[in-house]
Amino acid sequence: MDSQFLVSLVMILATFGLYIGIAFYNMARQTSDFYVAGRNVPAVFNGMAIGADWMSAASFIGMAGTVMLLGYDGLAYIMGWTGGYLLLTFLLAPQLRKSGRYTVPEFIGDRYNSSTARLIAAVATIIISFTYSIGQLSGSGVVIGRLLEVPTAVGTIIGVVLIAFYSALGGMKGITWTQVAQYLVLIIAYLIPVIFMSLQLTSNPLPWLSYGQIVGELQQLDQQLGVSEYVVPFTEATKWQFLALMFTLMAGTAGLPHVIVRFYTVSTMKAARWSGAWALLFIGLLYLSAPAYAAFSRFILMTQVAGSSIADLPAWTASWVNTGSLSVADTNGDGILQWEEIVISNDIVVMATPEIANLGVFVIGLMAAGAMAAALSTAGGLMIAISAALSQDIYYRSINPKATERQRLLVGRSSIIIATVAAGIVALDPPGAITQIVAWAFALASGTFFPALILGVWWRRANGPGVIAGMLVGLTVTLAYIFAAKFGGFTILGIIDTGAGVFGATAAILTIIIVSLVTKPPSKETQEEVLDLRYPEGMTYKDGEVWRTDPVKANRPEH
Amino acid sequence: MRKIDKKQADAYFRARTTLVTIYLLIGFSASFGVVMFAEQLSGFKVNGMPFHYFMGAQGAVLTFIILLFVNAIINDRIDKKFGLDQDLKDKE
């Protein structure tokens, strides 16, 4: 047990102690008048909470590494995951908020007046959340594996135990101040290494302004080595793949249910808009730093690690080689490690960089704490989504309507454990990099929820049979394309598995439109409800007339 | 609850829809548009990077953030114009 292990462990425990402390402090105050009076969390802090909810292991651990290894082509992740907020804020959030339905299966079931549609949406929620959580577990495996210097798979098993425990505690979700603290830990952990690296390499403390210079130097280094250049577009995949991936991530973001809920927890429409804007600003802070991270890491690896004698590699390489995610074999046997001989996994770049740049035990410990917060908080939320879909939408609504609260709770709890273990088994030998696995979850969301929600709020003619057929077709097409592209080598226009959402969404939208048009239009009631969504909260549409209502009095549950 | 002129309510809907269309067009040009013409747009540098790279790494994200804030500000004004200002109502 070295000092790094102890420092990292203490930082992880201290930050988790902080989150739990805040949660208990708030719970204790919940009964007091002060808490009720202060229920409206200011938009800035709600924005931070959305940011913490949103940023998972894929953003924190995976993204910078993906940008580093893919060069320009990796930027699809940066634009896709931020651009999704445009679709969400402009096309869905106000309407879904007004509809007053809190989960996606609930909205789809009521809007399309179909319990079958609701059931399909619940199954899709489970598939999407399950896929997403594989990425989170594989992320926690990277962190724990490095911490204990054990293979990543062993780290994943420990992660499974932690996540099952964390989710059983309720995941500490919905407690805004806990999430604000989580965001702060996460962003500080992410920014400190980039700022230090920026100072080391360019003597400028602002990485966002300084890494352009490094990108220029990388261009020259690549030309000297004759490897594919960092900034040249579409070297790893086609332009169509870039566009398809970006669309998939944007549409998937708009269709992922767990962020939308956050827009409900504020009492006014105005506060929801501002929360969304602040959220993207806080998320953007990390996303704008990831390419800087990528450029600095690549530069340090190319100039300070590549070219050194194989017998004299820095100490950090040994610990990462032990996890199985780094290979520094001297393949041509000249005793010197060349750039081409470094094989580094996307997933370890962020975690390894503080060590590569020699930033000291505290920074490395802080990174571990930030990464664990990102992975565990998102995984906790996903497990709760799975258990809610299983116990409420499937078990209670469809299988056993007479179930007691106790029975439902039991189904919910056991589904968390089964889902975590099952996801953990898949994550033992991850089928892809973290960003890639998470991209599949987004592809599935864009093939199912995105079409159902967009048409549901914007087209009143969309009906139950349409959405049932559409979601099934979207799900099938997306899944089939992911498997065919990943394992069968089948591609259209060079679009690989991560861009599958573009086909799923197109197929689903067409199916919903065609099937809706050839079947009976929805009831007048449903159509009126959809028309009502056009108008802001505070206006109600009824029988061709618009009424002014008091939106402040609308009942919103406390989260 | 009181009845209001449907024309006024529809005017609100139209104003919102027009603005949303404009925002999305700007947002998509900054992302999809630039990617479409990435090769042609790599000739000059912004912030030390070729333009297409700058837009992917920084430009598009900044555009999205600005759009959301502009939307929040403008929509607050529209709400005020249509008498939907919720903060004012709270104080009444």
From TrEMBL, chain A:
InterPro entries: EF_Hand_1_Ca_BS, Na/Glc_symporter_sf, Na/solute_symporter, Na/solute_symporter_VC_2705, Sodium:Solute_Symporter
Topology of this chain in the membrane: Multi-pass membrane protein
Matching Gene3D superfamilies: Sodium/glucose cotransporter
GO molecular function, a single term: transmembrane transporter activity
TM helices/strands, residue ranges: 6-28, 49-72, 78-96, 117-135, 147-169, 181-201, 240-264, 276-296, 359-390, 410-428, 434-459, 466-484, 490-518
Major localization class: membrane
PROSITE patterns: EF_HAND_1, NA_SOLUT_SYMP_3
Keyword NAD: no
Localization annotation: Membrane
GO cellular component: plasma membrane
Keyword Electron transport appears in the UniProt entry: no
Keywords in alphabetical order: Membrane, Transmembrane, Transmembrane helix, Transport
Recorded family membership: Belongs to the sodium:solute symporter (SSF) (TC 2.A.21) family.
Name of the featured protein: Cation acetate symporter
Automatic annotation (TrEMBL), chain B:
InterPro entries, sorted: Na_symporter_ssu
Stretches that traverse the bilayer: 20-38, 50-74
Ranges where the Sodium symporter small subunit domain occurs: 10-84
Keyword Membrane: yes
UniProt keyword annotation of Membrane present: yes
Keywords from the named record: Membrane, Transmembrane, Transmembrane helix
Name this protein carries in UniProt: DUF4212 domain-containing protein
Organism: Planococcus maitriensis
